[in-house]
């Protein structure tokens, strides 16, 4: 693949990392302000999920902790049947099954994740259960689903009529050619800064449309789809997960900031590493 072609292909992932850096910028500057001036908390998320961001913001204003606010925010999109990239109504895999992935991380560095989960809508909340109620960081498939039922989650059929209709149309050709642009992404990542100056984040997705069965992208991977360090900031990524995973994008940005780079500089270096790794 030519360099120019690759840059175009990874444009969405690059934009996601840039947004991650923007999140860091907001969190970093506001955190300092909170510690001195007691200013308002902040919620920010990827893409145009304004209702999700509003829900998280209102939760923070009411005094809710950063992680709970982030989970509340992303739940708006998990429950949005018109969003075919997150939660219930998400596009299925090649077998016609909707599988969801998510992760969360709090200000102490505690984290939890779930992958390949069926029949559960609010998987970000389930990831928090993994973090708080198990000795593990990640649970997959039936194990995660069983944990959900034990903790009061209700089973739901995730494949909606519209998603099923789109899947049946796809079956006519069964072509797998993801179009990488701003309209076609597979994640909501959210970072929240609460009234105590603590940062936390959540990332949730149904993955790429018509993915191979069992495919997992960057979204539920701590360090790739999400990373938080309360002393430095946080980053969330969205886009072509395979490319972000190769550079551990969110972790990389936070660590570059730790070394003194600005959020913009850290982000640009992360994107450049993606390009460099794919030179042909």
Automatic annotation (TrEMBL):
Binding-site residues for substrate, renumbered to this chain: 215-218, 238-241
Active site residues according to the UniProt entry: 187
Site positions per UniProt: Cleavage: 186-187
Name of this protein: L-asparaginase
Keywords: Hydrolase
Entry's Gene Ontology molecular function annotations: asparaginase activity
E.C. number(s) listed in UniProt: 3.5.1.1
Gene Ontology CC annotations of this record: cytoplasm
Pfam families xrefs: Asparaginase_2
UniProt source species: Nonlabens ulvanivorans
């Amino acid at each position: 693949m030519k360099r120019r072609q690759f840059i175009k292909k990874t444009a969405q992932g690059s934009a996601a990392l840039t947004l991650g850096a923007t999140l860091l910028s907001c969190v970093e500057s506001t955190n300092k302000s909170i510690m001195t001036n007691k200013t308002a908390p902040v919620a920010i998320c990827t893409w145009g999920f304004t209702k999700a961001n509003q829900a998280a913001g209102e939760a923070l204003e009411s005094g809710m902790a950063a992680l709970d606010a982030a989970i509340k925010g992303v739940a708006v999109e998990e429950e949005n049947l018109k969003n075919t990239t997150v939660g219930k109504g998400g596009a299925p895999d090649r077998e016609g099954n909707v599988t969801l992935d998510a992760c969360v991380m709090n200000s102490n560095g505690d984290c939890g994740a779930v992958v390949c989960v069926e029949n559960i809508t609010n998987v970000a909340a389930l990831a928090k259960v993994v973090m708080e109620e198990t000795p593990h960081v990640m649970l997959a498939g039936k194990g995660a689903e069983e944990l959900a039922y034990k903790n009061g989650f209700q089973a739901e059929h995730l494949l909606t009529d519209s998603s099923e209709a789109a899947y049946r149309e796809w079956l006519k050709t069964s072509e797998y050619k993801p179009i990488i642009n701003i309209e076609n992404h597979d994640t909501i990542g959210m970072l929240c800064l609460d009234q105590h100056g603590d940062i936390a984040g959540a990332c949730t997705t149904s993955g790429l449309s018509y993915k191979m069965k069992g495919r997992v992208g960057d979204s539920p991977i701590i360090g790739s789809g999400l990373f938080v360090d309360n002393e430095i900031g946080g980053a969330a990524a969205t886009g072509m997960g395979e490319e972000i995973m190769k550079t551990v994008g969110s972790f990389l940005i936070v660590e570059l900031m730790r070394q003194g780079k600005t959020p913009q500089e850290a982000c640009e270096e992360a994107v450049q590493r993606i390009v460099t790794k794919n030179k042909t």
